[in-house]
Design a protein that fits this description.
elongated; nucleotide-binding; 111 residues; mainly alpha; plant defense; repeat; Disease resistance N-terminal domain-containing protein; disordered N terminus; Rx_N; disordered C terminus
Amino acid sequence: MFVAEAVGSSFIGVLIDKLIASPLLEYARRKKVDRTLEEWRKTLTHIEAVVDDAENKQIREKAVKVWLDDLKSLAYDIEDVVDEFDTEAKQRSLTEGPQASTSKVVIHDLP
């Protein structure tokens, strides 16, 4: 039981780390969704604290265990979305470079 408990809060910590890692953060800035990622990071930090407390209480209270399982399932869904976004960011970084701009450059032919 202790191992399963430790996995919950550490998993959320890993997810938080993914939200602030480059090239994901760089890509989020270019796509203008960095504020959303920052809100997710803050929310997940609060959730992590609650999960730590709930992991201790789930042994005594079945309702807390059910709630905690639902919350962990949601965290896994969030991780899937973040992983997809991170994969796209890494692919873009490889093809465009880390400082690539989202604006297009127009090249005019000179006479």
